[in-house]
From TrEMBL:
It holds the Pfam family Methyltransf_9. It comes from Shewanella salipaludis. The gene is cmoB. InterPro entries: CmoB, Mo5U34_MeTrfas-like, SAM-dependent_MTases_sf. The keyword tRNA processing applies. Coiled coil: none annotated. Belongs to the class I-like SAM-binding methyltransferase superfamily. CmoB family. Keywords: Transferase, tRNA processing. This is tRNA U34 carboxymethyltransferase.
Length: 330
């Protein structure tokens, strides 16, 4: 069974210690709920990941664990077969003991767009909301973060993260908790909070922004990346049914509307630092993610539109700073 005891120990003497009042019971409940699903099967795979400590680790320019020279061909093949049991791999890529996990998303491209605009992460405590398998968490650690905590309720993402962590070395201060942000109390403790690719999945985007604000210390930085449309501060797309075949897309605002939302939620110094169309090279089907991908979500006769006729995915990155709370919004 995946254990969170080391995380409890690490935050016991930190500014996150009050989280221990609710966290163990929440995670215990999560484990009981997944007792009869795929989690036990994936945990058995994790228990087979006994490999020597990697002879090298690069988290600055990539997520590369091991030079590829440590394992014999048979060992490498066995490791690859084990890692493939966690398919589909969506966020990455990872390079592990010479194995290239070619994920659906080139998440390194997103990181390269975001990183130049954020406050330096050196010695900062970071929260990554909707972190997926944790790719960006490793890059945050490589950028100097003191501690990185990711939350995502998916058991598959948790097991993918645990697989990478066991191969990278358990001592690294990076942890994934299988929770949604609605399960977090107002912690007011993180120096930087990331929410990338989450907002449009929330039924109440304003509540999501307030939840993000409540995790930051005053003066802390929010890094928000989400789908946007063109238009003024009143422009918001509400898909009638699906968007890009996704049935859980609720609100896609313009950049101007998103900035207004953040300002109404007591964020200051709100600015858009990047707008980028999602390309067919950045999100695509691979040998490690053989399911449908972006090309299947777009109109085959007009890739500027989704199959439903909406504008094709465009993503913006917004940076904002938490101001003193306005209790009228709480």
């Amino acid at each position: 069974m995946i254990s969170f005891s080391s995380f409890y120990q690490q935050i016991a003497d930190s500014n996150l210690q009050h989280w221990l009042e609710t966290l163990p019971s929440l995670l215990g409940e999560w484990q009981r709920e997944h007792k009869h699903g795929n989690l036990p099967k994936w945990e058995k795979v994790l228990n087979k990941l006994h490999y020597p400590e990697a002879d090298s680790l690069d988290l600055v320019d990539s997520v590369t664990i091991g030079s590829g020279r440590q394992l014999a061909a048979g060992q490498q093949e066995k490791l690859e077969n084990l890692l493939r049991l966690f398919q589909p791999w969506r966020k990455g890529p990872y390079h592990i003991h010479g194995i290239h996990i070619d994920t659906e998303w080139r998440s390194d491209w997103k990181w390269d767009r975001v990183k130049p605009h954020i406050a330096p992460l050196t010695n900062r405590t970071v929260l990554d909301v909707g972190c997926g398998s944790g790719y960006h968490m490793w890059r945050m650690l490589g950028a100097g973060a003191k501690r990185v905590v990711g939350i995502d309720p998916s058991p598959l993402f948790l097991c993918q993260f645990e697989a990478v962590k066991r191969l990278a070395g358990q001592q690294h201060p990076v942890h994934l908790l299988p929770l949604g942000i609605e399960a977090l109390p107002p912690l007011d403790a993180f120096d930087t909070v990331f929410s990338m690719g989450v907002l449009y999945h929330r039924r109440s985007p304003i509540d999501h922004l307030l939840q993000l604000r409540d995790q930051l210390r005053t003066g802390g930085e929010l890094v928000l990346e989400t789908l946007v449309i063109d238009g003024d501060e009143n422009a918001v797309l509400v898909p009638q049914d699906r968007y890009g075949k996704m049935n859980n897309v609720w609100f896609i605002p313009s950049v101007a509307a998103l900035i207004l939302w953040l300002e109404k939620c007591d964020f200051t110094d709100v600015r858009c630092v990047d707008v980028d169309m999602t390309s067919l090279a950045e999100q695509r089907r691979t040998d490690w993610m053989p399911n449908e991908s972006l090309v299947d979500y777009l109109d085959p006769n007009d890739v500027s539109r989704t199959v439903e006729g909406y504008p094709a995915p465009k993503r913006a990155t917004i940076i904002a700073v938490k101001n003193q709370p306005n209790h009228d919004l709480i």
